[in-house]
Structure formats: structure tokens, C-alpha cells
């Protein structure tokens, strides 16, 4: 095959049996040297052109020229290249987190019992996940289906290529599922005895409407390890996440309270400096709290806001559209690359305060701010509270150029809202949305990006829909186990 844009490629594993050498006879590494890449391409020509006759003259294609392509080789103890494989984005253009393995070739005298092919496949899977892939697939010759099944791949469809039957196989990537399992899955069982006092329709929400008033209360704790490692940033984030919770409810913030544990006064002062800086930036006063010294690091903040019509996290319904609105400015927080996107520390106080108007301007049926479970996990929480399933169009989700999709969809993004709405709109930047070909100003801050990027359907969990129409399961069931909010 010479066209890298098609959705198929081939894996060749053929040859005679041989006596297995010792288990330490080869190692799989990245082909970082020109010599290793040249040896891999020479081996490919031997297998695909001369041995198999699948190509006429050369198997070189555009993927070989893509600087993002990664080549892995199995190298013997004497540096001989025994086999190789390449992994690469499945499509040209922006990397959406869809990666593909192709051109797996093994030297004839290293096949079968030596396990070179299987080792290369395993290494390719690990490398793809480390690069942020949320989908990884390959098209293999039908006689190799058994090998890939044994390695954990899942056949999806059968096709005919170059005169040979092939099978399109998927490697299951459970990055999002692992995240929600670690951060949210236990909540239903843990909190079941406390939900009786929650106002109807707001179970599992970002904030809690206070009965008999227009007040909304939100409370978040910061990871103790983060408080110890980066106390000023922890103080800043303690305010940030609580004000985001109020914003998701459509509430205007009015006051903060903090609870701090610290080993000594010097350390407490650093944490409180971050709290004070954030309080000043957002213009929300700290009106009280509690501080205890001589204890391990601990920090939580409570925020109070006001709204006469709080927006529930579970107000969505099947058929409604899903929208993501995010501040894509900034970059990865130092020492938190891939985990925390800092969109706030460079913003002016006026810009930060304007974010409270995002949800009121959108007037959604449901809203959640993206938190520890990432964008996909948070979407799953909105869907669960709404008694629905969510499907996200990966290519339509607003994302910064400096982050892989795998990281962006699982990180804490600074400011990002997932909302549900009855109308359907598309992508905009600078506070507008396009609908039916026209542009309508909805009063959003000019520095946020907003896009309709999915819908709520019947069922449970979250699916990711890719440009070829395939939907992969990111979350297989509910996120928290708390069920529908009403």
C-alpha cells in the first residue's frame, strides 16, 4: 500500500519455525539513529516488496515523511535489527489522539518462536499510550488475527487488501476509565447515607443550593501532596476550583472560607499567600475559616454564591447537544505537565471575573465544570446525573495546540465547562457561536473558545466518536454510581 491516508495497512508475520534463543537475545527500542531507521526500512523492502510482492519497487509512503511517526526496532545483542514497526497519527493534520500501527516486519530467521513480532506489538501499544493516544488500531493479515487476539486486540471488521484477507483490529485503551475509577467510582457507595438532605435534582452537583435562600455553597479540598509540593499554587487552586463550581451553577460568588492544616507558621503563610492572591484576583473576600499548625498539610475552601435559578448538573435529556467552553490560553503548569493546565495565572482580574458569566450567557439545561475526572469523565458525570449516555465528537472538542488530546481530555484544564442545551451550534472563538451558518454573539468572554461537540442519548457511559464515524467506549457505565439526580 502506498497511500497513507487510507484506513488500512498491513502486518506481515510469516516464516518457518526455529529453535527459540535465550530470552535476553533482543531488546525493543526507539529507532533514534539514522542507521536503525535505514535498517528497518531495508527490512521492510525485503519483506513487503521482494518476499511478499505487495508493493512494486518501494513501500515508502507519506507516513515515513511525517515527523510525528515513531519507529520501534527489535535489536539483537550484536545490534542487528531483527524487526521493526512504526506508529503514527492515523490522519494528517492535528493529532486527535487516534494512532495507528503499521509496517510491522520481522526478519525471516527471527520469526515464530523467538517472539520478536509479539514483543514489537506490545511495545507499540505501550508507546502509543505514552504519546497520548486514546485510540490505537491496525489492519493485519487474517492469518495473524490469532496472534493479535492473544495479545489483547479486538477484531472490528474484515476487509480485502492487496489480494489478501485482512482484519481491522483495535487495541483497547482504558485511560479515561482508569481515571474515573480512581477518582469517582466509589462516591455512590460512600455518600449514599448523606444524599437525603440534598435538594431535589442536585444530587452529585458542583454546588449545593441552600434551602430557603438564593445561596449556593461549594466546597473542595486540595490533594495534600500538592499542598506540600507547591503551597502557593495549592492556595490559588483552592479558590479557583470552588469559584469554577459556583460558575457551573450559574451563581455569582460573594465570599470564601478556608480551612488549613500546616506543619508550621512559615509553611501556612505560603499557602495563605496563594489563597490571598486568588481572592484579590477574583475579587471575592475571605470572610472566615480555620487554621491549625503542627499537623500534616491539608487545605479546603468553601465558596458562597448567589443565584435565583441554579443550573443543575443533571438537567440534560436525550437529544440535547453537548457543548464545551474553555479558556485555552496558558500552558502546562511546571511539574504538572499532562495533568494541570494553567489557564488562570496569566489572566487579569477582570478576565477571571468575567468567567462567572459563561454559564448564565449559555443558559444551558445542565452544566458541570471539568474537574479531577477530566473532560470526558466530567461529561460522564453530567450524563449520569441526567440519566443519559454521552457521545463526544473528538475532532470538535476545543483543545489547545500545546497539549495532546489524551492529556487534554484527562487533565484538570483550569477553566472548562461542559453544558447541555436544546439548540445545536458549532465552534466559535472569541465569545460567539455559529448556528445555521450565521454567527450569534452570546455574550461570552472574548478569550474563551466554545463548541458543540456531542450529544446526550439513551443509555449510560461516554463514547468517543472519531472522524471515520467509529465510536469507542471511554466510560463503559456510570462514573460515580450516584445515578440520576432526580
UniProtKB/TrEMBL annotation:
Listed transmembrane segments: none
Domain N-acetyltransferase: 27-174
Cross-referenced Gene3D superfamilies: 3.40.630.30, PurM-like, N-terminal domain
SUPFAM superfamilies cross-referenced by the UniProt entry: Acyl-CoA N-acyltransferases (Nat), PurM C-terminal domain-like, PurM N-terminal domain-like
Matching InterPro entries: Acyl_CoA_acyltransferase, GNAT_dom, MSMEG_0567/sll0787_C, MSMEG_0567_GNAT, PurM-like_C_sf, PurM-like_N, PurM-like_N_sf, ThiL-like
PANTHER family linked to this entry: THIAMINE-MONOPHOSPHATE KINASE
Name this polypeptide is given: MSMEG_0567/sll0787 family protein
Source organism (scientific name): Nocardioides plantarum
